[in-house]
């Protein structure tokens, strides 16, 4: 079978560690006619700005699946799980000195600076029965609902595009990409991947960052899969 679309993470997957775009990856994504969907833990305006700069479509997944946009200048589909995330933040604020990132733009999750004991925070929330998870993307800490992730976002995107999730190739680097790779038809982990991606990836690149994404795409092309 040939895959019909690509869903790709941004930070650490098509960017370097400093978040500058890896042009090797951009050239690879733009050198074919398969639609590309950006999927990020970052905010919607960041995802749309990146899509404009890269030259791909406006259908994007933002806030780790909490927001799905049908396109540029459209009304996004926003999940409604912020209340419990805020309650979790309020509890943890009594234990740690926390700093929110982009609070005026976040609609479905709370994102924090990486300067507190993550495992202890997870245990506190578990002990209090919260249905949220805390994930570390190496760029920030995210408090998010367990009900949404990049996998649920990809399922919604596939529906909007008239495709099935298995029609997609998914490319990522971090623990928040696991569900997206699981629901896609083919998963690529770049060389700087988190260990959790190894067990769900169909292809693990030897090269890191955007060069790894390009390596994975070249692997598929060499087998006429895209």
Automatic annotation (TrEMBL):
Chain positions recorded as substrate binding sites: 150
GO molecular function: magnesium ion binding; phosphoglycolate phosphatase activity
EC numbers, comma separated: 3.1.3.18
Hydrolase among keywords: yes
EC class name: hydrolase
Active-site residue list: 9 (nucleophile)
A GO CC annotation given for this chain: cytosol
Cofactor(s) needed for function: Mg(2+)
Binding annotation for Mg(2+): 9, 11, 173, 177
Function summary: Catalyzes the dephosphorylation of 2-phosphoglycolate.
Protein known as: Phosphoglycolate phosphatase
Organism lineage string: Archaea, Methanobacteriati, Methanobacteriota, Stenosarchaea group, Methanomicrobia
